[in-house]
Amino acid sequence: MLARFWDDGDGAFFESPADANGVSIRMKDGYDGAELAGNSVAAELLWRIGTLLERADWRVWAERSFAYHARRLSGMPQAMPYMVSAMERAASAPRHTVIAGPRERDDTRALVRGYDSRLRPDGDLVVVSEETRDALARLVAFGAKMPMKDGRATAYVCRDYACRLPVHEPAEMAALLEE
Question: Three-state DSSP class for 84?
């Protein structure tokens, strides 16, 4: 995505790659309609994954895309509501919830259902099991370090990489998510 569509001069993404045949003018998507603009999705993805994986370089690309579109959206934000949403998310402290426990266990599934039952557009969920811990350690280092406690599925609700005390019950997790 970055190699083929990124505009290093002005920021944001072109709709076509530099080597596209028959394209004389490379345009940039600037409208979220029935289909979201590629720029909105790309900027939100870079910010979200960059935050989750602690990749400052990806967040910088997202910020450059936000800056490019902010100039255009200052007079008409309704043109790109998904981009505005991504910008709002980036302006807030990152929120992550880590659930440690085997995916097939009832207590893990109950915590995941509890998380999924709430609208959390500003947060991400990471489920860590013993089978995935090593792979996650290479990607989501902070999440892979969080173990099950007392042999039970455990939820860690984090804001700006600072986590509250671990909890086991969906209602306890819900209360932390609402703070």
Answer: helix
